[in-house]
p-aminobenzoate N-oxygenase AurF
Amino acid sequence: MTRWLTPEHINELSADPKQCSQMDMPLQLDLSKPYVPEDYTQLYYTPVYASLSREQRLHYNQLSALRINEYIMMLEADLIERLLPPLLHHPQVAGDKALLLALNTMMHEEQRHFRGFAALNRACRPDLYPPGADRFFSVLPWWTQAMFGVVGLLSAHLPFALWFLMAMEESSKTLAKDMVVRPATETLGVLDQAFVRVHHEHLKDETRHLHIDAILIERCLERRWETANAWLFKRMLVGVVRPTRGGSGVKVIHQLVRDLPELACRQDEMVDALLALRNNRAFQVSLFNRRIMPTAFRVFDRCHALANLGEEMAGYDRR
Ligand SMILES: [Fe+2]
Ligand SMILES: [Fe+2]
């Protein structure tokens, strides 16, 4: 993809129900099945993973999948609600009625996605997500909270988080494709089909969102502020690529131990292995790489100020 769809074309597509995500489907989960490919979970990249029993790995996979859904929900709510509304008034956006419509539609679609993923998590674990509680693992750490606050304050002039949004929307698209194309996991059998269906539906809207992100980057990330935007973007990544003791990955391990108390004696070992991922190249590359976000990487390639992005984003291979 080198040229973006026009806002008019995006609006035509989003008016066609066949092109839109249906996120409110009935959910019949099979608790004996894994929910996501194993290489999308954190402990997979540690030596601990292979030493867990199949039942323990399966349980970890299911909890990790809930965390992944919450992560997508965090982008759809916390990030988008701070980043996009100020851009409706940007000089390069405010006069373009078709783009304004596309942006408003996108924000509504993200609210629907949020509700869809919240319902999926509740169907999987009603005990962790009682009515009204949509987040269990992803109560935001201080760094992310502070960064999202900065995004909201600066978005109108320095919308650096558009690069992050584009990369994450594209990676959620690739996750959905991976789940459909390779439904068999490495060691846990076939993915749960209800889980796959929700992610596959999500992909439909996200395909259009990627074009909106690219248009906004072209129009709103001004060349004269490129260096400042790039500096802020790199600071934002620091909190994303480093697992912390207070972060959602450690919370998944704590829940795993609550659910499977026989693992209590291995909790510290699992947490230490998880924290060590900050220096694990295979894990770091798995977060951001050209396979899962090819379009976003091509956008990064064209930006002079992101030439040394590989210092913060291990998987970025400048081309
Ligand atoms: Fe979404
Ligand atoms: Fe999206």
Notes: The longest helix spans residues 54-87. Residues 271 and 305 are 36 Å apart (CA to CA).
